[in-house]
Automatic annotation (TrEMBL):
Source species, domain of life: Bacteria
Taxonomic lineage: Bacteria, Bacillati, Actinomycetota, Actinomycetes, Pseudonocardiales
Family: Belongs to the cytochrome P450 family.
Keywords of the record: Heme, Iron, Metal-binding, Monooxygenase, Oxidoreductase
SUPFAM superfamilies with a match to the protein in the record: Cytochrome P450 (SSF48264)
Pfam families associated with the record: p450 (PF00067)
Taxonomic source organism: Saccharothrix hoggarensis
InterPro entries on file: Cyt_P450, Cyt_P450_B, Cyt_P450_CS, Cyt_P450_sf
Name recorded for this polypeptide: Cytochrome P450
Length: 385
């Protein structure tokens, strides 16, 4: 419905902030994601958001929430941060995780009861275990990280502030520990990374670690959970799932039921006219809808609103007719890892439970209440070998 109500509308977030949400077709979404008139700069964003909240009589300190990670930095500084993180987050390091991800997924699936919740038993814990393994977070601390991440994603200040304080304190300690006792996990890699003599500052290290945990967690839970539901609810789709078809099924899920509804905030630093009418005024805080971009009928034709796991890639390139991982300078750094995780989770479940089915009508499944992520709260399934 959003896609047809014009390309830009206003929404109020749970913290009282008014944002403009754009709902454009795929090409226009991509060009907006790559438009230098939309800034991510942390200081500018914070000021714009805090001014607005203060005017509404809801003064809020956002300094702990929007820090200078690469996601909240513009070029040219963004390039330095991304290069430093990419040096530690290489595709070789990510690809090397594949066997461990598959093993963890198989163990989690083996531990599922016959009446299982696919979110609590698989889609949620797998990405958390993977990102903790990758960073080198001790096993006993993972549950706490989950609670903080979850609270931060609600965008409710009373939950966000204590959770981010707790996470900041915890990770600052862990970074110090890794400085003294380096291991071969990513956090130690980030501590040591150097590009042209530059290193990450302590604040950048901290916000990067937080970004990796937050960005890599619920998003991937959403991709796994949304794919499981779509495949189990579509006649014949679960049976047809195999190592050759799973890649296309994952892309179709990303397109049709994007685990990221809208991007995190951007700030307009100039007026922007949108194709098809509508405009973004300078100073506006903007979120760009990714979910609607994947439903573009000009790209996907009259069946754009159907889930078809065999749909051929519309655009013939790696972007596959959706913008679910973003576009341009902030294109998701973890997209390859997310796809490895989704493939491992779905194939582990399919191999062990070819007769799996949803235990409730998919229309009755509840979605979480997050602004950015689009995930099911629970997915009850009946698992019979
Ligand atoms: C950026 C989506 C998984 C790390 C982004 C952006 C999107 C996105 C849309 C751009 C946001 C913007 O333009 O404001 C997703 C989805 C995922 C996923 C849908 C899972 C299905 C991951 C994972 C990691 C990760 C597993 C890391 C472990 C990042 C980072 C950025 C990012 C570091 C910031 C890149 C930059 O600013 O240059 N992601 N993501 N993501 N993502 Fe992901």
């Amino acid at each position: 419905a959003l896609a047809r109500s014009g390309p830009v509308h206003t929404a109020e977030l749970p913290n009282g902030l008014e944002v403009l949400v754009t709902t454009l077709g795929l090409d226009a979404t991509r060009s907006l994601l790559n438009d230098s008139r939309l800034s991510k700069d942390a200081a500018g964003l914070r000021a714009a958001m805090q001014d607005q909240l203060a005017r509404k009589g809801r003064p809020t300190d956002l300094s702990r929430i929007i820090g200078p990670s690469m996601l909240n930095t513009d070029p040219p500084h963004h390039r330095k941060l991304r290069a430093l993180v990419s040096q530690a987050f290489t595709s070789r390091r990510v690809e090397a995780l594949r066997p461990a991800v598959e093993r963890t997924a198989a163990e989690m699936v083996a531990a599922l009861p016959a009446d299982a919740d696919l979110i609590a038993g698989l889609a949620f814990p797998l990405p958390l275990a993977v990102i903790c393994d990758l960073l080198g977070v001790p096993v006993e601390d993972r549950e706490r990280l989950h609670e903080w991440t979850s609270a931060m994603m609600t965008e409710r200040p009373e939950l966000v502030v204590p959770a981010s304080d707790a996470m900041v304190g915890y990770l600052a300690g862990l970074i110090e520990y890794k400085r003294d006792q380096p291991d071969d996990a990513l956090l130690s890699g980030l501590v040591q990374a150097q590009v042209d003599g530059d290193r990450l500052t302590p604040e950048e290290l901290l916000t990067t670690a937080i970004l990796l945990i937050v960005a890599g967690h619920e998003t991937t839970t959403g991709l796994i959970g949304n794919a499981a539901v779509a495949l189990l609810a579509t006649p014949g789709a679960w049976t047809a799932l195999n190592t050759d078809t799973v890649g296309a099924a994952i892309e179709e899920t990303a397109r049709w039921d994007s685990p990221v509804r809208v991007t995190p905030h951007y700030r307009a630093v100039a007026d922007i006219d949108l194709p098809g009418g509508g405009a973004i005024p300078e100073g506006a805080v903007v979120m760009i809808s990714l979910g609607t971009a994947g439903r573009d009928q000009e790209v996907h034709g009259p069946t754009a609103d159907w889930f078809d796991p065999t749909r051929a890639p519309a655009s013939g390139n790696a972007a596959l007719g959706h913008a679910t991982f973003g576009h341009g300078v902030h294109y998701c750094l973890g997209h390859h890892l997310a796809r490895i995780e989704a493939r491992a989770a779905l194939m582990a479940l399919r191999e062990r439970y070819p007769n799996a089915r949803l235990a409730v009508d998919p229309a009755d499944l509840e979605r979480g209440d997050k602004v950015v992520t689009n995930t099911f709260a629970t997915v009850p399934a009946r698992l019979e070998p």
